[in-house]
Amino acid sequence: MSETVELTAVRKKELNKLADFVSGMFSKGNVTLLQEITAFEELNVYVDHYEDCFDGMLVFDEEQFHIHLNIDRRNNWNTNRGRYSLSHELGHYYINEHRIGLQTGLLEPHTSFAEADKNDLIELEADYFAGCLLMPYQKIYYFDGVKKFSLDKIKTISASFQVSLLAAAIRYCEVCPHELMIVVSENNKVKWYERNEHFPKWPFRFKVHGSLPPTTVAGEYFTKANSRFETIETVKPDDWFYPFTGDYRANREMNEQCFYSDGFGYVISLLWFK
Ligand SMILES: [Zn+2]
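Above are the sequence and the zinc ion SMILES. Below is the predicted complex in structure-token form.
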């Protein structure tokens, strides 16, 4: 199994601070104003056709920075995907080590994909920065605090901050005060997961790139006919995990709610406790 790279808590804090500083200057309501940021920094942005080569790319050339956004992969100023890709490239620009690396040639200009390599530290940093820039902690943490958690909350965040559902789910998972885990799957295989610090560290009944556990909502969707459920479903912790013996949480009921991304073919499972 390949080793997974993770950002340290200290590094996350630094990136968060940097992103907060930028979004604090350029936002209206919950929306971070990316066009204002690129104008202020005098960055050249090109929205153009680059086929399937990348989502976004930052290049340093003739003493200037240039950001390319690929409209062939639905990246534009006002699409959720484009806003995310642009924020990711702004991460490469604002994070000192990345920008100086590009300016000095120590860091090769690279293409970035929205479904980034989860083992590339540079990409993880830019992704984390993008999430913070588009959804500042103070705004998302207090977002609609009264309402009980469900997929609806993620949908509301997605609309309010103008980000994709997946970006909203990842950022909310990181900052929310309750146990939450996200599992993204495709063709009955687990692609990746995010588990927040509150969620029990139980071993999984799945492996990344392996099959989904069969008795989960997502697992049944892929393996059983007429099993597409969009409502909140009750599952048991041991449908997904091997709970530690004697852990009081093992007897609690869990919720699983799925979002089916028909365009991209993946399923997001949100897992939380009742
Ligand atoms: Zn990148």
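The pocket of zinc ion is lined by residues 88, 92, 110, 112, 123, 126 (CB under 6 Å).
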